[in-house]
Amino acid sequence: xxxxxTRLPEPxxxxxxxxxxxxAMTMGTGVLxxxxxNLPGGLPGQQALxxxxxxxxxxxxxxxGGLFAARLLLFRDTLAPMLLHPVQSMFLGxxxxxxxxxxxxxxxxxxxxxxxxxYELAHSLWWLDAALACGSALLVPYxxxxxxxxxxxxxxxxxxxxxxxxxxxxxxxxxxxPHLDAGxxxxxxxxxxxxxxxxxxxxxxxxxxxLLRLALHxxxxxxxxxxxxxxxxxxxxxCLGLLLMGQGAPAAFAGTPLxxxxxxxxxxxLVGGLALWGAGFWWLAIASLFTMRYIxxxxxxxxxxxxxxxxxxxxxxxxxELHRLTGLAAFAWLGGFLGLQLAAVWTLVMSRTLRGIWHxxxxxxxxxxxxxxxxxxx
Length: 378
Prior knowledge:
Elements: H1 13-16, H2 23-38, H3 46-74, H4 79-84, H5 94-114, H6 117-146, H7 160-176, H8 182-217, H9 232-252, H10 259-296, H11 309-326, H12 329-359
Organism: Pseudomonas mangiferae
Keywords: Cell membrane, Membrane, Transmembrane, Transmembrane helix, Transport
GO molecular function, one term: sulfite transmembrane transporter activity
């Protein structure tokens, strides 16, 4: 067996070359845990496996957070190249999105083990997540507009990452609200709707640009194959957010002047969620066709492959939630199929990631390589 870390570019590369794109690994693992926990059927060991994956995602998030902090403290000269890099900076949005999946898992798996104190912890973590999400949605576009170099022919859906983060946090507010007192529930739901509107409006604008870029310049090269799935993310999380916040609103706003609006939000949430699910289904189909084309071109693995997991997982969660609310069996069957597909994709990407970690070849930050922006892969 070959010795580990034989392809490290330098001795401390796992710190100096640590990039925010590693947090996409926590996103993919966390969303798989939530999907397994919500799949109908109740197979033996299903919930235990889901909880184990949540623990894995939590440990990875803590490890990556430590490595990222160490890079910023020990190698401060690497901060500016990362922020100015036209791709690596986009993955700052993966940090709050990864945290959002952990909050969802904390509500699902933590409360039965540790009781009501979990809800207070989740409440505090949610506000931290919201702050990080809004920060990425403001900072990264500002740098795009003022410092970074971009062109239409090099545009990919990776631009969506920083601005989708508030939408993911918004959906989590709908999960958390039923477990809080009325005042706290109203606060996070109001913030959730604001972030949902902020995020989805910008996401639609960017998806339009992505469609234009695809029509004019065709598919990106194989290094960016996984970005074909990223537009599915805001459509799926937009659907899920409307459904979850709409379900939480009536109880939170009962007895207030917004009581009638909250009841309406529940009904509009279902109708709007179905509409966004339809848009997401089209992108699911087109992204699948793109991927089959990329497979024939022999894609080379990179960390960007984790982009295959979270959008598919979010769409699966939205599908399962629609089944719960509508009772339509078609959503249950499709959700189960998509859940199995997600598990297969996660297994493949995780195995390739572990192989890359063993050899050390994944610890190469494009923003620190010669020519920085030229090697802009995940």
